[in-house]
Amino acid sequence: ASANGVARLRRESLALYSIGFWTLAANAQAPCPGATNPIGLVLDFQTDDISEDTNVLGGFPGDVATNFYAEAACVGQLDWGTPSPDGGCPCGCGCRCSNPQFETVQQNGAMLRMRQVGRLYDGTGDPPQILDLIVKNTTFYMPWSSDQNGRTADQTFAQISLAADQEATFTYRLVANDFVCNSCVDSPGDCTCDPPAATIDFGFDMCFFDFDTGPQESDPASVEPNLGERFTTCGLDVETSYGGYYHHGKKPDSSMLVSQVLCDDTDAATIDTSAYMDIQTGSFLGGTNCIQVEALKEGAGSDNPRLFSEVTMGLGAFGGAGTCADYDVCPSYSCESDPWTCGGNVPCMTCGPIDYPDYASEADVTYPTGTILSGYPRSPGRMPDVIECPSAGATLTGAGVYPATEGVEERLQLRPYRYTMPKFVCVTYPEGTAEFSVTYRVGPNPGGDPGYGRAFLFAGTGLATSCVGPPPSPPPPS
C-alpha cells in the first residue's frame, strides 16, 4: 500500500498488536504478531540509558550528567518571600545553578535531544530507522528549575520546567539518530547542532499530561488561574473521525488500542475531564487546526503520573490502575483506619476537623469516626477536594482510588484517581509531520515570591501506525 493509504489504515485496523509503549509486549522491538509487520512511527520515551541525551534547553543544564553536558550545579531554591531578580535566576530560581551554558545558545546547541525515542517502520519487516527528538525554544525561555528538564530512567514521560508568569514556544523536531553533533564538553567552542527533520510519511500521536493550577479561590478561577498551566499546539490531523485529539471522555477510533484504556459514556463509568481541563479548538497564536488546553483544578507534584498505566484504565494484569467502573467506587476503609500516610510520616486522611487556611470561601469540616473519605487536604493550598462517601464500596462519581496492587506505584496507591487521570490530552499529527510547535504558559503567582513554576509532561504513545501482512504469494503456475 502507498504511504497515504497506509496512514488511513491506522483508523481502521490498528488492532491489539502495535503495543510497544503500553508494556503489553514482551519485546517492544517487535510490536506486531506472527507474520505481520509494523508500519509507521513508534514513539517510545522509556529508556535505562540517557548518557547520549543532550539536556541543555535554553542553555540551562539538566539534573543528570551525560556525554554532552555536566549536570546543573544547583545552589538551591530562592528563599521564600524573595522576589525573582530581573531576567530570572541561572537555571531558574528553583535551582540557581553556577554553570549555565550560555555559549550553547550562541552556537544553536541549546536543546533537549532525546536519543532513540522513535522507530520508523516501513512494513517490510526490515529494521526500523531510529530517530531522536530535538526540542528547542524559539522564544524567550525561563525555567523554574532546569534540573527538572528532560527524561530520566525511572519514568515514561519527559518534561519541561517553566517559571511562573512565563510563556514560551518550543519546536519539536524528529531527526535521524545517526546525525552527529559535537559534544560541548569536548568542543566547547563548536557545538552547533541543527540536524534536518526526518521524512515521516505516517501520522502519529503525542500526549501531554498533568494540567494543574495553584491554589484558587474560585473553581474554576474567574481570572487567569494562579500558577495555571496552558498548552497550545497546532497542525492537528482534523480529518480524523475524532478531530485530531482524544482523552478520557472522548475516545479516538474504536480500532485504536488506546481507545480500550480510556473511559467514556460507552463504559461502566465515564471519566469526565470538563472540570479539570478547558479544551478549545480552532486558530490560536497564528496557527490553524489547533488545540488549547487550560488547567482548571489545583494539583500537586505528588499527583504527577510517570507511566501511561497510571492515567489509563483496563490494562489489567499488564499494570493498569483498574477498570472504568472503579473510578466511581468509594474506598473500603474509614478515616480512623487510613492504611497509608502522606510522605511516610503523617496520615493523609484523618477523622476530626479539616482546616482550609488558603480558602476563605471554604468552611472547615469535621468528620466523625467511621466516615468513608475519598481524598485528603493536599498542599500547597490544602485544597478542598475530599469526597464523603455514604458507605464503603458505594458508587459515587469520581470517588474511586488507585488499588494497592503490583503495577501501581506506591506513591499513588489508595490516592483518588481524580487527582491524576482526567488531566491529559493526546493529539494526532498528520502524515508528513516531522516538526511541530508547542506553546506552554504558566500563570502568575501573586504574593508567592519567588514565584515558583510548573513542569509540563509529554510522551509518544508507543503505537505503530498499523500492522500489515507480507506481500501475497504469486499465483500457482497454470
Q: What does this molecule look like?
A:
- It is a single chain.
- With 478 residues, this protein is mainly β.
- Helices cover 3% and strands 23% of the residues.
- The chain contains two helices and 21 strands.
- The strands form five sheets. Strands 1, 2, 3, 4, 6, 8, 10, 11, 19 and 21 form a ten-stranded antiparallel sheet that branches.
- A hairpin with a 6-residue loop joins strand 3 (112-122) and strand 4 (129-137).
- The chain is globular, with a radius of gyration of 23 Å.
- The model is unreliable at 1-29 and 343-347 (pLDDT under 50).
Brief descriptors of the model:
about 475 residues, mainly beta, ten-stranded antiparallel beta sheet, five-stranded antiparallel beta sheet, 2 helices, 21 strands, about 25% strand, disordered N terminus
Show the helix and strand layout.
Layout: H1 3-13, E1 37-43, E2 54-55, H2 102-106, E3 112-122, E4 129-137, E5 158-163, E6 166-176, E7 204-209, E8 229-233, E9 245-246, E10 277-282, E11 290-295, E12 341-342, E13 346-347, E14 352-354, E15 365-367, E16 372-374, E17 387-389, E18 425-429, E19 435-442, E20 453-460, E21 466-468
Antiparallel strand pairs: 1-3, 1-21, 2-3, 3-4, 4-6, 5-20, 6-19, 7-18, 7-20, 8-11, 8-19, 9-18, 10-11, 12-13, 14-15, 16-17
